[in-house]
Design a protein that fits this description.
Length: about 180
């Protein structure tokens, strides 16, 4: 491997450049990134993304990360779903949390989280609902199926890929089967 003008030898190389959002993968998201919360990376959105819905009756939308099926709705997103559902159940009981997942079903720990979600009748899980468009003016997202889903609060985690340095150096992640993927 080359670093500047020097070469480094190694048996195994781990590069961890973090992730970059692919804003252009969801129509309307690039222009609305300051108004659509993801709270996925540390920064100003962490402080704005609390579950304080503007009214007692609200519709929340959570779009999990990585709609390609490798990690869609991973444990982190499912735990967030449980936390928001708990908050709404206890503080805004007329509100509903709608989870739009690109996969047909939960991928990570499905039985465990389905059991946990049984305590939260305010969760509506919709598999096979990849978000392809966001319209913050109309407060609505559109799924790949053409369904338009209204929201009061939206947490949309943009599609991601490996950081630019990993892509440029052709070091994007390999799956265990060896097929090329990005993270």
């Amino acid at each position: 491997m080359r670093v500047g003008n020097d070469a480094l030898s190694y048996d195994r190389l781990i590069v961890s450049p973090g992730v970059e959002f692919q804003w252009d993968q969801v129509e309307g998201l690039a222009a609305a990134q300051d108004r659509v919360l993801h709270a996925w990376k540390a920064g100003p959105q962490d402080r704005r993304a609390g579950p304080a819905a503007p009214r007692d009756v609200g519709r929340w939308r959570l779009r999990p990360d990585d709609p390609a099926g490798r990690l869609s709705l991973p444990a982190r997103s499912v735990r967030t779903t449980c936390q928001v559902a708990w908050y709404l159940k206890n503080n805004k009981p007329k509100s509903k949390l709608i989870v739009l997942d690109a996969n047909p079903n939960l991928v990570s720990k499905a039985a465990l989280f389905r059991a946990a979600w049984a305590d939260y009748p305010n969760i509506e899980y919709r598999g096979s609902n990849k978000v392809v468009k966001v319209d913050p003016g109309a407060r609505e997202v559109t799924t790949e199926l053409g369904d338009k889903v209204k929201y009061d609060v939206l947490n949309l985690i943009p599609p991601q890929r490996a950081g630019t340095i990993a892509v440029t150096a052709d070091l994007s992640a390999q799956t265990s089967a060896g097929a090329r993927s990005t993270i």
